[in-house]
Amino acid sequence: MNKSRRKLCQLMATGAASLLTPWPLRRAVSDDFRSPNERPVVGCIGTGSRWGFREDGMFKGVGSFAMEFGDVAAVSDVDANRMNAAALKVRDLQAEAGRPSDVAKEADYRKVLDRDDIDLVTIVTPDHWHTKIAIEALRAGKDVYCEKPLTLTIEESKQIRKAVEETGRVFQVGTQQRTESSQGFLKAIAMVRDGRLGKIHSIKIGINGAPVSDSIPKVDVPDGLHWERWLGQAPLVDYRWSPKTRDAKQYWNYTNCHYDFRWWYAYSGGKMTDWGAHHVDIAQWLINQNGDGQGPTRIEPVVANHPVPLNERGEPTDPTRYNTADRFVVHVDFPNDTQFRIGSEFRNGLLVEGTKGRIFVNRGALEGSPVEDMKSNPLPDGAVEAVYGGEPTTHMANFMQCVKSRKTPISDVASHVRAINTCHLGNIALRLNRTVKWDAAREEIIGDELARNMQGREQRKGYETDA
Fold first, then answer.
1. Secondary structure element (H or E) that encloses residue 166, with its range
2. From-to residues of CATH 3.30.360 in the chain
3. What's the pLDDT tens digit per position in 251-288?
4. Prediction pTM value
5. For the structural domain made of 14-180+394-412, what CATH number should be given?
6. pLDDT tens sequence across 343-355
7. d(Cα 464, Cα 309) in Å, to the nearest integer?
8. Is 386 exposed, middle or buried (0-12, 13-18, 19+ CB in 10 A)?
9. Topology of domain 200-354+415-453, per CATH?
């Protein structure tokens, strides 16, 4: 907590608090943050949908959560339209709460990192920007909250973990299923720890299929969007956009930018890393495979369907359409005869099977005979707290508490990269449509030079990650 941190002059008014954050966070704020202690100064890098603005106009996301605990002093985005709207929202809400309302707008995120008065940053950008910005923020002495998936490649996973170890900064990854808002997952893990399912032998992980698109035409870049900078490390390509008419309920248009970056391998990993970052993380936590030297041994593609042809190197050959796998199933072997089946063909969530029974858990359900049995035989007192490492709270509250205590947050980098590496390996197997073998201790694909080369990728000059 550096000496330039602003002090909270008065207790946040109830009305202002209701404007700032959704109700689950308001009830989760600890006394430490309600009292007139020093509040962290926050810089927000990336101000799109996950940061706060939804297409229905609601302001709900990382930005609103950050303002519950800190004072946002700067926002940054390569889309000036989003950045200007974010600055106005922050200014108005913080002024209403009687807090600092002078909000800087920086098209270049590095100017946010250069400010000595900013204590921590939120990073809510497309996936291909996460690691570079996060490493630079750590080295600038900032604590970091970064959306998932944290990395684009296995090589980036090594780089970001090394930077955290070297700098000792507090880093929370945005895998919110580990927190209070998703206690069904914590209870599921507590049940396994208490032996309710016996020895776990398989987990079926449903993460939905990715969307497909027709050919998307190239069009002029919208005013205010710095397209070349948005592309960053990815190849320099045309901007594409067309209206989305396939499903009237969809908010988003077809594009290779903003929300739809998820469906292009140049910027993301499709559903495998989008939902996989959540569910595979919980599954590896559940079977105690998120520690040093742990991880899968073999990844086999069973269903590998892509909406565009891939060449022999697993590279998409059609630059006009979404290209991440739309239908897929991979079998992932772990030590101790445990197997994950990860795919688009299953109900979203985790079906956990053991020698004594099975349960299903997702964000809205915790089902199965062992769950029913808990009515007459509840878990021991403190079982969920033992899984979490204390009293479960909201994700941003946990991060801010760790900023003060310097403890490791619940969604730490080390465990996250082991889970997201499983997802990266799944995508490599899908793109090559062949089995991949993994040495978890060395963090290296074995016996397949092409697959091993896909652990990293070439980065466009000027946008390389400085390891």
1. helix 154-167
2. 200-354+415-453
3. 568 999 999 999 999 999 999 999 999 999 999 999 99
4. 0.91
5. 3.40.50.720
6. 999 999 999 999 9
7. 28
8. middle
9. Dihydrodipicolinate Reductase; domain 2 (3.30.360)
